[in-house]
Amino acid sequence: LSYLPGRKIEQAQLYSGHTIKHPAAQKFCLGLAGCTFESIDRRGKYLLFQMVGGKSLIVHLGMSGRLLFNESVSELSHVRMNIALTAEAKGKRTASNSLYLQDPRRFSRVWLADAPAKLFAAVPSLSRLGVEPLSKDLNQEYLLNQFSNRKQSIKAVLLDQTVIAGIGNIYADESLFVARIHPLTSAQRLTSVQVKCLIDAVRKVLSRAIERGGSSLRNYSDISGVNGNYQHRAWVYGRSGKPCRVCKTPIQRVVVMARSTHFCPHCQQASKSKLYGF
Ligand SMILES: [Zn+2]
Q1: Nearest to 236 by CA among 209, 257, 267
Q2: 221, 206, 219, 139: which is closest to 174 by C-alpha?
Q3: CA–CA separation, 261 vs 269, rounded Å?
Q4: Ligand 1 centroid distance, CA of 85 (Å)
Q5: Phi and psi angles of residue 195, each rounded to the nearest 5 degrees, phi first
Q6: How many CB atoms lie within 10 A of CB 258?
Q7: Which candidate among 47, 82, 94, 223 keeps its CA 20 to 30 Å from the CA of 61?
Q8: Residue 256 β-bridge partners
């Protein structure tokens, strides 16, 4: 995706099952034609493609969406959108000059905002996003305040994008393990020490995932996405029934907000709120 800035869009084509949310499909295509990519940004799980002149293309990849560049559309299944770019100044236009959205399960969402001032009107959920997990906005005071009136489990609150933006299911489980907090603990019952541990754990887990995934993960990909490298070494995620890497107790699995939740019943007890020094 780092090839995109400076490239101009020739036309956008939509295929059956496309996931354009705003504006209507025809208007979307007309609005994108002729735009030039300026920069790419990430906010929570949203990718923001800023265009020269102020428009922005917003993409949420959902559970199964992927953006592909340098691939031929004829070899891909489940393509929902094809953004064809004009030829580079010198090269010939080839099939690889396209950005594709591939999405077998159609949970992805795509929007086009006409101007920066219209961004939140076009994508209301973007305006409700919580703090970025690696920014200094994620601090003890903020979280204690957010948790103070939430009886829900801490796992459910971590998945709530209006509290912290962009912690996905895997990293929520991993962070709770490192902070030694049981996922079903009510958020409002966490002590300030536990909250401090949780913040440290989130930062450690995400930083390590980003290190392993490379810079593409930091900038463009959904940090909740399954990273093969990471999952291999996960403490608890996807390890239901396997021995805890610390104490050998079998990892348990429960379902919270329809998402698999993994934890060690021995390491993650209310009485043991101390950060693991991994
Ligand atoms: Zn354990």
Answers
A1: 267
A2: 206
A3: 15
A4: 51
A5: -65, -40
A6: 6
A7: 94
A8: 259
d(C-alpha 196, C-alpha 198), whole Å: 5
If you measure from the C-alpha of residue 180 to the centroid of ligand 1, how many angstroms do you get, rounded to a whole number?
A: 9
Separation of 269 CA from ligand 1 center, angstroms? 10
- Cα(236) to centroid(ligand 1), Å: 9
Report CA(264)–ligand 1 centroid distance (Å).
Answer: 5
pLDDT tens digit sequence for 36-52:
999 988 888 889 999 99
What is the whole-number distance in angstroms between the Cα of residue 170 and the centre of ligand 1?
Answer: 17
Task: Give distance in angstroms: CA of 176 to centre of ligand 1.
Answer: 12
Q: What distance in angstroms lies between residue 142's CA and the mean position of ligand 1's atoms?
A: 29
Residue 183 CA to ligand 1 centre (angstroms) = 14
Owner of token pair 């007309």: 30
Ligand 1 centroid vs 254 CA: distance in angstroms?
Answer: 16
Residue 235 and residue 178: Cα distance in Å, rounded? 8
Looking at residue 133, its amino acid is P
What is the per-residue pLDDT for 179? 95
CA–chain centroid gap for 135, Å, is: 15
Instruction: Tell how far the Cα of 237 is from the centroid of ligand 1, in angstroms.
Output: 13
Per-residue model confidence as pLDDT tens digits over 99-108: 989 998 898 9
Instruction: Report the 3 state secondary structure along 21-76.
Output: EECCHHHHHHHHCCCEEEEEEEECCEEEEEECCCCEEEEECCCCCEEEECCCHHHC
Please classify residue 216 by burial: count the beta carbons closer than 10 Å to its beta carbon, then call 0-12 exposed, 13-18 middle and 19+ buried.
Answer: exposed
Q: pTM of the full predicted structure?
A: 0.75
Question: Residue 83 in contact with residue 73, Cβ under 8 Å?
Answer: no
